[in-house]
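$ ./design --mode recover --in tokens.txt
reading tokens...
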């Protein structure tokens, strides 16, 4: 036996306590960003998910698909318009969002997981009325079109899939409760609400940054652990700002409502999910009650 084989065996042995810890537990992963675009990162994330599901973790994937939506809109000659990071969604754009998220992106993930040995099942928020929403009303009265605010989540379609041995892959299109239209909803928010409804052990939000940084220009200033009570002070000090505010808001809501911990994880690093779940190294910033 050479040293490389011994090293691999040691790593597997060290993962045993973590496999036991999460066996039979539910982990919700919000999948997006560079991990969704770069082919090598896409394959790494998919293989991580398959491995974890095969060792008994009840995984649920919630995904967005902004770049793919932009590409399709560009092909149709339609310009994307954003207000504070949220896509203005008229009916034509909503048709594209539903087609791309519930179709192309969702089924590509399902297909890849299947080819790697997983048993994935594609779902969207419309299925079984799983995610229901109403029109998002902004305090400044700016109209975002068919962008929704989640009203309620019924996790039964996901639970049924898990109970039958599938890895559910959920796209974030919601059923409207205030009209006949579907709604485009934020994937971070959907993942958080679904994690709460499933009483998940962990929520993981994959991002394009290392985690929460004390200094955004210095990746060595990572804050590996933050408690909910610290969040207001970090916002006041400007350490949490911009798009990180709503992302951390999703984490805070989830842990306040029963999810054991929530994590902002760097999706640019291959196999960062395995490092987080199956080692004592950890990665990113963990939000604790």
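writing sequence...
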């Amino acid at each position: 036996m050479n040293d490389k084989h011994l090293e691999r065996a040691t790593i597997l042995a060290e993962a045993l306590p973590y496999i036991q810890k999460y066996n039979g537990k539910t982990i919700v992963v919000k999948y997006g960003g560079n991990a969704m675009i770069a082919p090598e990162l896409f394959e790494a994330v998919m293989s991580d998910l398959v491995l974890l599901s095969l060792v008994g973790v009840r995984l649920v994937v919630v995904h967005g698909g902004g770049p793919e939506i932009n590409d399709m809109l560009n092909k149709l000659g339609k310009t994307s318009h954003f207000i504070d990071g949220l896509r203005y969604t008229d009916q034509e754009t909503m048709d594209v969002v539903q087609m791309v998220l519930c179709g192309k992106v969702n089924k590509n993930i399902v297909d890849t997981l299947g080819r790697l040995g997983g048993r994935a099942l594609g779902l969207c928020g419309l299925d079984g009325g799983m995610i229901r929403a109403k029109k998002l009303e902004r305090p400044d009265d700016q109209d975002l079109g068919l962008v929704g605010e989640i009203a309620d989540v019924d996790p039964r379609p996901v639970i049924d899939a898990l109970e039958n041995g599938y890895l559910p892959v959920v796209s974030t299109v919601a059923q409207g409760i205030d009209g006949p239209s579907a709604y485009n909803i934020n994937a971070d928010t959907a993942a958080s609400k679904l994690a709460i409804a499933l009483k998940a052990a962990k929520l993981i939000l994959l991002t394009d940054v290392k985690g929460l940084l004390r200094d955004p220009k210095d990746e060595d200033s990572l804050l590996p652990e933050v408690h909910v009570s610290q969040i207001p002070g970090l916002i006041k000090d400007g350490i949490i700002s911009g798009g990180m505010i709503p992302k951390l808001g999703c984490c805070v809501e989830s842990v306040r409502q029963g999810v054991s911990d929530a994590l902002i994880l760097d999706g640019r690093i291959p196999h960062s999910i395995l490092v987080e779940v199956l080692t004592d190294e950890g990665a990113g910033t963990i939000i604790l009650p």
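exit 0
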